[in-house]
Design brief:
heterodimer; A: alpha+beta; Multidrug efflux transporter AcrB transmembrane fold; Hypothetical Protein Ta0175, Chain: A, domain 2; Gyrase A, domain 2; 3 domains; 4-stranded antiparallel beta sheet; 15 helices; 20 strands; 20% strand; B: alpha+beta; Alpha-Beta Plaits; 2 domains; 11 helices; 4 strands
């Protein structure tokens, strides 16, 4: 046997072994392998896409303009306080992304004060006597970028505590977050967990202003907007109307309780160290107990001490969970949030409180949820179609090209085996369109052999010996085969660049399938022919 | 030796005007489809248009009519319902540019639970695409098609003479337009997965064309005295059986995919089947005639 034949056979054998080793974890045989094997050898198998294993693919957009707005509002309040401290009278208003100071008794002093104490602000052009400040551009940019980073971090924490195996969370473009959660059974709950801002605030109720008595005690769900619209002209400065969900224990009817609250939040959720679910033994109802850090404990003590006999609202994302009366000063930094939760709701609330609030709200812009049954059905269908294609194409080749066709079939099996092995080796994700790519590869894999066989037939017809026919058939078909494959590789590459999720999976299998085909056709089949011809001069070629 | 086609001497180029007419019509329909895609009149999939799709698997047989009645009773307007009776599955699509995702799908599920009691179902999949994502996917698709076409043209022009590059590109463009046009006529959805089928067709249909061109190039070197039209006819006849057999094996795979591959890949495999057939046709009847048309006419003729 010629050296080159041994060398090529060895290469093929090695690639088969490597492919099998990588594919083993995808089969049940892997479980019965010895422990040392599992320790040393690859254990991943083929990674299935979300469309095959079931799960959620979500894309959220971080509404980062809101983060800027919140910052501006906070700065506005601070500017107002600082001006007051300096005994300057002025009217400070925040509108959009601007802080407007009008009617200042000492405009120069205000300007100096802002320049010294608020480096993130710059004064824009002024109209008349009004001073207008806005955030510096680089500051705005930083806030925006930070809001996305913070959202990713927070959402990651929430999902980790929710308990999803192997979630992937990453940024896409400037302000989008892609979240993939394989195998989640309750998609709605997972989405809600991610979606909520979870801003916890403690605010005082306004019980003294006459409007408090005028407001109805509760409204039907859905009528909230109308009520706010009705009463907003009468709203005292620095107050707002908020609602609390209320469920009648007997009739299970839901109503919205109306509260008049002071806008200023005295304490927020970022001062928490812990949030846990506990059970109220009286009603057998779950509630969430929270614990503040040192600063929070001190603040909580001060606030409760200063407002004894008054009611404090516990507000989560603008919804009032409860508004208990403060009986005495509360030291120790512990509080409870109750509000007719189910166990699941309480658990989720504890998760979001512990993970912290989002600096900017997020909006879901894409949701692809696949149930586990569809994935299973798809895999089964893919297997069936693959086996059918394999059998039909193999039979045809054996029928049409006789022994040579059988050799091509060997290359076909090699091609698919190596393709699957390569997917496992690269850790590429197999998706449903990816399966389509594999099945198309079955049909395309024999193309190269068809081109060669037809060339060989031509050579035989002009009277060449089988060995000469094989050699010149390969030589002459070689460039044609490469040329005709490159165009498919180009489209696969473009699809990979521009495709999303499942389409990318298709591009990967198509690209690998075609590349491996070049190897199996140009090395695999050729070596078998050489082997057949190496023993003795073959008189006839079965083709 | 079994041979499908033996020593044919068909005058393919002589039939080029008839072929041009057929291809012209198919391409025009495809172009019409493209115009309608851009003006939003075509049946765009929700991945391009934005909207909600819910696929459900029922316990027992269910009719499209019952599903429509139930869904519409739930206040969903203009649902597009497609059923897969062999597996008791139903796909409900609602296009729309709703800003807040999640409402439509839960309303559909609730409406069906209420409207079709006694026939339990599981939600196979839910897809919700916001308008922003839809327009971005549309944009990406546009670039993908443009770049793929450009790269292929450059490659062919590099490997062959420029006019061969033009011939191959026109043939490929024709294949893609023809399949798109047929899908448009069948009122099938134009979506991302169809787009990937179209690009695959673009890449694959070139295989046959290149085989033919390769032979033409070879014969041009060998037979300096023959006219281009003679060489083309000879070459196409010589490689006819391999052109057909290579397509046939891919066609076999696509047919298997169509019948056994499940509902997710149904339209994809249909596009592939059409594409392979059209691609074979164009590599014989479109690509070479275009090259011939670009040939400088000899002065004496």
């Amino acid at each position: 046997m010629k050296k080159s034949i041994i060398w090529r056979l060895g290469l093929i054998a090695a690639s088969i072994i490597v492919a099998l080793v990588y594919l083993l974890p995808a089969t049940s045989t892997y479980n019965s392998m010895p422990q040392w094997w599992k320790n040393v050898m690859p254990s991943r198998g083929i990674v299935l896409g979300l469309d095959l294993q079931g799960g959620l693919h979500l894309v959220f957009e971080v509404e980062w303009d809101k983060a800027v707005e919140v910052t501006i509002e906070r700065l506005g309040r601070n500017v107002r306080d600082s001006i007051k401290k300096k005994n300057i009278t002025a009217d400070v208003k925040v509108s959009g992304t601007e802080i407007r100071v009008s009617g200042a008794s000492d405009a120069k002093a205000v300007e100096g004060l802002v320049k010294d104490q608020f480096p993130s602000l710059e004064s824009s052009f002024t109209t008349g006597s009004d001073l207008i400040f806005s955030l510096r551009a680089d500051e705005t940019k930083a806030i925006k970028a930070n809001s996305v980073d913070q959202a990713i971090e927070t959402i990651r924490n929430r999902i980790d505590q929710f308990g999803v195996s192997e979630p992937t969370i990453h940024r896409q473009g400037a302000n989008e977050i892609v979240i993939q959660l394989p195998g989640v059974k309750d998609p709605k709950r997972a989405i809600e967990l991610i979606n909520r801002v979870a801003l916890l605030e403690f605010k005082m109720l306004d019980e003294t202003s006459p409007l408090a008595a005028e407001l109805p005690a509760s409204v039907q769900p859905g009528d909230e907007e109308a009520l706010i619209k009705n009463f907003s002209p009468k709203l005292p400065e620095g107050t707002e109307i908020l609602f609390g969900r209320q469920v009648d224990r007997q009739t299970q009817q839901v109503t919205k309780r109306v509260y008049l609250v002071k806008k200023e939040s005295l304490l927020t959720g970022d001062l928490l160290t812990d949030a846990r679910v506990s059970i109220d033994t009286r009603f057998n109802e779950p509630y969430v107990s929270i614990e503040f850090n040192d600063e929070g404990s001190r603040l909580f003590e001060d606030v409760t001490g200063a407002n004894v006999k008054k009611r404090m609202a516990i507000v989560l994302d603008k919804n009032i969970h409860s508004a208990p009366e403060i009986r005495e000063k509360i030291a120790g930094g512990k509080a409870q949030i109750s509000g007719g939760f189910t166990m699941e709701e309480a658990k989720d609330l504890a998760i979001v409180l512990k993970a912290g609030a989002l600096q900017a709200p997020v909006k879901m812009i894409q949701n692809v949820t696949v149930g586990p049954t569809l994935g299973r059905d798809s895999i089964e269908a893919g297997k069936l179609a693959g086996i059918a294609a394999m059998v039909l194409v193999s039979l045809f080749m054996a029928f049409y090209y006789k022994l040579s066709g059988v050799i091509a079939d060997f290359a076909l099996v090699l091609n698919i085996l190596l393709l699957l092995g390569a997917l496992a080796w690269l850790g590429a994700t197999l998706t449903m369109p990816g399966i389509a790519g594999v099945i198309l590869a079955i049909g395309m894999a024999v193309d190269s052999n068809v081109l060669m066989f037809e060339r060989m037939r031509e050579e035989l017809l002009v009277g060449k010996t089988p060995r000469a026919a094989v050699d010149s058939g390969y030589d002459k078909a070689f460039l044609t085969i490469v040329d005709s494959h490159v165009t498919t590789l180009i489209t696969a590459a473009v699809l990979f660049q521009y495709g999303t999720g499942p389409i990318k999976g298709f591009a990967v299998t198509l690209f690998l399938g075609v590349s491996i085909n070049l190897f199996t056709a140009l090395v695999g089949t050729k070596v078998v022919f050489d082997l057949l011809n190496s023993r003795k001069e073959v008189r006839a070629l079965s083709i | 030796m079994i041979t499908l086609i033996k020593n044919t001497r068909i005058d393919f180029l002589g039939k080029r005007y008839f072929a041009f007419a057929v291809s012209g019509v198919l391409t025009l329909i495809g172009l019409l489809a493209v115009i309608h895609v851009f003006t939003g009149k075509a049946n765009l999939g929700i991945d391009f248009a934005g909207g909600t799709a819910v696929q459900l698997k029922f316990e027992r047989t269910v009719t499209v009519h019952d599903v429509r009645v139930a869904v519409e009773a739930g206040g969903i307007r203009e649902p597009d319902i497609q059923d897969f009776p062999s597996v008791n599955k139903v796909l409900i699509r609602v296009k729309g540019k709703e800003e807040k995702l999640g409402d439509t799908s839960s309303r559909i599920v609730a409406a069906l639970g209420k409207g079709i009691p006694g026939n339990k179902f599981v939600v196979d999949s839910t897809t919700e695409i916001g308008p922003k994502v839809g327009s971005r996917l549309r944009n990406d698709a546009f670039w993908a098609v443009l770049l793929a076409t450009l790269f292929i043209l450059v490659y062919i022009a590099w490997r062959f003479q420029f006019r061969f590059g033009v011939g191959a590109t026109v043939a490929t463009f024709h294949d893609v337009m023809a399949v798109l046009g047929i899908f448009y006529l069948l009122d099938k959805e134009i979506n991302l997965i169809l787009l990937s089928a179209l690009l695959t067709i673009a890449g694959y249909s070139l295989t046959d064309t290149i085989v033919v061109f390769d032979r033409i190039r070879e014969e041009m070197k060998r037979q300096k005295k023959s006219s281009l039209i003679e060489i083309m006819n000879l070459s196409i006849n010589e490689v006819l059986s391999r052109t057909i057999i290579t397509s046939w094996t891919v066609l076999l795979s696509s047919i298997c995919l169509f019948f056994f591959g499940g509902e997710v890949l149904h339209d994809f495999s249909l596009a592939m089947i059409l594409g392979v057939i059209v691609g074979t046709f164009s590599s014989i009847f479109v690509a070479s005639p275009i090259v011939l048309a670009l040939e400088k006419k000899p002065a004496a003729a």
